[in-house]
Every structure is written in C-alpha cells, then in structure tokens.
Amino acid sequence: MKLVIGNKNYSSWSLRPWFLLKAFGIDFDEVKIGLYQANTADRLRQYSPSLKVPVLVDGDLVVWDSLAICEYISEQYLAGEGWPESVADRAICRSVVAEMHSGFFALRNELPMNIRHSKPLDVTEAARKDVVRVVQVWGGLRDKYQHEGPWLFGRFSIADCMFAPVALRFRSYQIELPNVAEHYKQTLLDHPAMKAWMTDAISEKEHIDEVEL
Ligand SMILES: N[C@@H](CCC(=O)N[C@@H](CS)C(=O)NCC(=O)O)C(=O)O
Questions:
Q1: What does the pLDDT look like over 98-125, one tens digit per residue?
Q2: Which of 10, 26, 28, 201 could form a disulfide with 115 if both were Cys (CB 3.0 to 4.6 A apart)?
C-alpha cells in the first residue's frame, strides 16, 4: 500500500491519513511529491485523479481525499477502530471531523501549515473566531472524555488526525490557548509519529513562496 503525500512542511491534508497509519502501526510506503514545482502536475497525474494529495493506492484501489482515506483505513485495516465505539460518540466524532474538513477557512488561509515558521502574526476577526471555535471543540471534548484517555474522544481516533495540522499551526504562529487546549495541543505534538513528521519537515529544502507568508 502506498500513501502519496506532499511536502511535510506544508501539506496539512497529507498529514491526516499519514498520522492515522503511523499511530496504528500500519505498514505502507510513502511517496512524496513536492508541491508547486514545474513537474508536480505530471507526477500527481500518475496517482491522483484530483491532482491533489493525499492519495492512497492499495492494490487496484485508489482513494483520494484525506477523510475518505481515513475512513477506508479504519474500515479495511482497523475493524472500525478509527472511530469511537458507541453510536452516539461516533456521531459527535463525525460532526467535529466534518466541521474541520469543510470549514475553518479563515484559519487555513491566514495560518497555513508551515512547520519551519515560528513567529506570531496579525489575523482577522474571522480567523480569531475559528481559533475560538477550535478551542471550544477541544475543551468540550477533553472535558467529557478526560477519564478515558488523553485524546479528543479518550482513545485515539480520526478526530485527532484531523486536528493534528491545527496543533502545528498553533505552534508555528504561537497562538495563546487556554490550559486544556494547550495541553491537548502538546499531547498531539508529543506523539512519536508527529515528532517524526516534524523532523522530516524541518529537514526539507523546498521553499514554496505560494504558502510562505
Ligand atoms: N479535500 C482534499 C484537499 C486536498 C488538497 O487540497 N491538497 C493540496 C495539498 S495540502 C494539494 O494537493 N494541492 C496541490 C495543488 O492544488 O496543486 C483532501 O482532504 O484530501
């Protein structure tokens, strides 16, 4: 099985399924395609019908879109363990995952993932509102599931993978967080797979002007 990803410094969408695979110890080959290069589209065309990363190639099956890949991994390799156990918890988990997948545009645009960046910056009211909403989601879930483990739903789930790039953005732009959110951010950043991704990102040489602020 191959996971095709973009630059580790910049590609927030790539991190999500990569983190899920690593966190559950599933074996896969990593294929990295540098984004925004002259040959990027040609290289992506070999794997990705959407010409975007991430893409999972498992035998004859091609799955594109980070959430669809996480869903597939959970069904095919984890007997559903990517999601919480109870129907109600799964419904809430899918709600926050969908909210992340289809929203937070100001946060994404104004605070792009850039692991090598380390400096605060001025953001608009819309981005500030997105940060407040992330803090509310993290705080509410940690409050509810604190006795079941350190992750958003106690046990590690796809929700943690979806928010992992947000933790990296908060780190890069030095966003001040209340204690509970700060602690959860640190839990994400301390995961060995996240540390490995960050180490690789820092050693990458490509500098993409389109993403740098
Ligand atoms: N909704 C998609 C978004 C994928 C996406 O936008 N990927 C970006 C990289 S992080 C990409 O491939 N950009 C290359 C391009 O647009 O040329 C997902 O969740 O996988």
A1: 999 999 999 999 999 999 999 999 999 9
A2: 201
The domains of the chain, with CATH numbers, are 2-80 (3.40.30.10), 87-196 (1.20.1050.10)
DSSP label at residue 15: H
- Are 55 and 64 within 8 A, CB to CB? yes
Measured in degrees and rounded to the nearest 5, phi and psi for residue 58 equal -125, 95
Instruction: Assess whether the C-beta atom of 66 lies below 6 angstroms from ligand 1.
Output: yes
The maximal CA–CA distance of the chain, rounded, in angstroms, is 50
For the question of whether the overall pTM of this predicted structure is more than 0.85, the answer is yes
Q: Is the CB of 12 under 6 A from ligand 1?
A: yes
CA angle 46, 28, 81 (to 5 degrees): 115
**CB-ligand 1 contact for 54 (6 Å cutoff):** yes
